[in-house]
Amino acid sequence: IRRAIATGLILSALIYFKPNHIFLLMPIVLFIGYSCRRRRKQALRLLAAIVIPVVLLVAPWTMFVSSQQHTFIPLSTYQGYNLFLGAGLDYDRGYTHAPIPFRYAEANGLRDTTPPPDSSLSTGVRDAMFQQRAIARWKSRPFDTAMFGVLKFCHAIGFSIRGEIRDLVLSGLFVLSLFF
Predict the structure, then answer these.
(1) Is 72 left (phi over 0), alpha (psi -120 to 50) or beta?
(2) Which whole number is the average pLDDT over 106-116?
(3) pTM
(4) What is the rounded distance in angstroms from the CA atom of residue 100 to the CA atom of residue 114?
(5) Which of 94, 117, 151, 177 fits a 20 to 30 Å CA distance from 106?
């Protein structure tokens, strides 16, 4: 239980540094569920020991930021913008080193040509505007947007998507990790 509590505390700190770390909860939950599949009470105790510290430490920040922005903001004031970038709608391609996903976005017309929201607006309002554009893109072009996301994910975890030997080695190691 001590290690599970420590995991929750460390995960909370990681979420403060970069809100995307909230997604680390998914593999943790899957791992605990798989490794304790015959001992449900132990699995529930471990999950509670991880999730409760995360909720207790992240919730005050969520309440503070939401009250300051006058809208619900779960983790960050840049979530809408990140969703916008994740849908291939970025304005400035210079921020990334992922040429293959962005070639796909350009070739399939995913790039957004409308000007960015006015910088004089509050961060919460700008974020909501970015989020609305991203959701509209997901609704209008779900396959292309999902494919762009898959390409970005593959690139992020080390696959160059160019057919290099490195991709084959990473694929092999990934498949092996599923069995051990």
Answers:
(1) beta
(2) 73
(3) 0.54
(4) 23
(5) 117
